[in-house]
């Protein structure tokens, strides 16, 4: 699947790559790479697209991306505004279990760890209640070298493998094997949706990105993502709406609905409740109540 293949630069004599990013916004294109990726979001917020699923992200989150899982950390629209002073920061550990580390992963003692990552191709998010421990691991790996870095790395992998009831980021049956033209086509569609979901997004416009008729595009999109085009766009829009409601960025629920691309309040309320399980007003009240209790 050629979804903007990304080559991770490997320094000489290194099998574990640690990459610190401080940018106006995160890399804005759907991509994949052979390495497993463990990312700690230190600063910034937006929507993570992993495979065929979307998840909000913010500072303190830690995500594990399986090898060759198409993904995109899409910073919020405010990060792309003219004269924006916002920055995004992440610390990521990359490693290839099938590369130079293969011999280590094939050790009997590493059986649980190998099984965890083999079964975790669809990716995971570390529970927030456990993030602090793994943040320490990632920071220690960044600031150590040689045998100490390897030891800390293995200890972190062991702790991850011991986690239970982890929720996958993407559908387990997400189609990852595509021809290069198909991969480039679906990547173009994903990127177009992620950059334009806040405006009127017509089926004709998106189908045109894939060089297909609307009917052919609907069949194509469902085949390769296992969700309908409408369901995908609705999830993107509702995810952003949840963020706006939680942050209190706009004056009213109507403002939130229109800024996320919904054409009517009625439709917004219906779609939001169908995806989140509660109406926007109830979601806002529950979130506000939680913040007051925590404070």
Automatic annotation (TrEMBL):
Residues 187-286 form the HTH araC/xylS-type domain. PROSITE patterns: HTH_ARAC_FAMILY_1 (PS00041), HTH_ARAC_FAMILY_2 (PS01124). InterPro entries: AraC-bd (IPR003313), Homeodomain-like_sf (IPR009057), HTH_AraC (IPR018060), HTH_AraC-typ_CS (IPR018062), RmlC-like_jellyroll (IPR014710), RmlC_Cupin_sf (IPR011051). It holds the Pfam family AraC_binding. It comes from the Bacteria. Keywords: DNA-binding, Transcription, Transcription regulation. GO terms for molecular function: DNA-binding transcription factor activity; sequence-specific DNA binding. The keyword Iron does not apply. This is AraC family transcriptional regulator. It comes from Mucilaginibacter phyllosphaerae.
């Amino acid at each position: 699947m050629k979804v903007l293949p990304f080559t991770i630069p490997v320094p000489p004599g290194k099998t574990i790559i640690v990459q610190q990013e401080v940018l106006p916004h995160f890399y804005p294109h759907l991509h994949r790479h052979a390495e497993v990726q463990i990312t700690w979001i230190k600063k910034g917020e937006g929507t993570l697209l992993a495979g065929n699923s979307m998840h909000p992200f913010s500072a303190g989150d830690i995500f594990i991306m399986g090898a060759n899982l198409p993904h995109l950390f899409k910073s919020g629209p405010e990060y792309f505004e003219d004269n924006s002073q916002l920055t995004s920061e992440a610390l990521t550990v990359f490693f290839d279990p099938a590369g130079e580390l293969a011999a280590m992963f094939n050790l009997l003692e590493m059986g649980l760890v190998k099984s965890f990552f083999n079964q975790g191709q669809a990716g995971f998010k570390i529970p927030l209640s456990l993030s602090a421990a793994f943040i320490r691991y990632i920071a220690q790996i960044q600031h150590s070298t040689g045998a100490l870095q390897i030891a800390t790395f293995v200890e972190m992998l062991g702790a991850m493998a011991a986690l239970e009831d982890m929720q996958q980021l993407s559908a387990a049956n997400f189609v990852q094997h595509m021809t290069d033209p198909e991969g480039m086509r679906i990547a173009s569609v994903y990127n177009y949706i992620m950059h334009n979901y806040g405006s009127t997004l017509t089926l004709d416009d998106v189908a045109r990105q894939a060089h297909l008729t609307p009917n052919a595009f609907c069949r194509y999109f469902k085949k390769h993502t296992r969700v309908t085009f409408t369901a995908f766009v609705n999830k993107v829009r509702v995810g952003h709406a949840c963020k706006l409601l939680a942050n209190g960025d706009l004056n009213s629920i109507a403002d939130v609905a229109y800024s996320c691309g919904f054409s009517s309040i009625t439709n917004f309320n219906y779609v939001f409740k169908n995806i989140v399980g509660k109406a926007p007003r109830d979601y806002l009240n529950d979130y506000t109540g939680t913040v007051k209790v925590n404070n």
